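Quick one: structure for this chain?
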Amino acid sequence: MNDNRTRLLRAAADLFARKGFHATGMSDLEKATGLGRSSLYHYFSNKEEMLFEITTRYLRELVALGERLLGEEMPAEQRLRRFSRAVMRSVADDLSELTVCFREMHAVTGDNRQALLDLHRQYEGVWGRILSAGFDSGEFEETDSLSVKAVLGMHHYSYLWLRPDGHRSPEAIAESFCDLILNGLKRPRD
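Got it. Here's what it folds into:
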């Protein structure tokens, strides 16, 4: 991605997370990035286009990673742990974007809103398929949509307290989550 575009998206995410989408003006973005208004409009036609990119970029990356993991032969526990670590690393690295996604998703309208909702369903579906693959292989107990929502909530609501100066790395937090999840999922060995 272009450096100016990346810088603009990071600045917009930080501003939207702190001030809110509607309270952030183009002049705020100009000041934060050092780019003029015409440069801003060169990269995005409007603020909502920026918001859509912010709320979907990390989801697209995680869906692609989840699909790759689902296509690889590996034990279900390993797949779950790898995806969990990647999600928590994304939450930590993209904290502003995730905050914006949770707080400002309602501001995305029209076709972009439908695309965002579809992407959320795809992402949730990746988690569901990871858990189902564990059941299919005989490693996990059967799960349902409530289980998937619980796993999603565990990972994504961590954004409320995850801090760069925290005592545990995102990967260590993911391991704790997986230990907790797997205690309920693993099938007892005969």
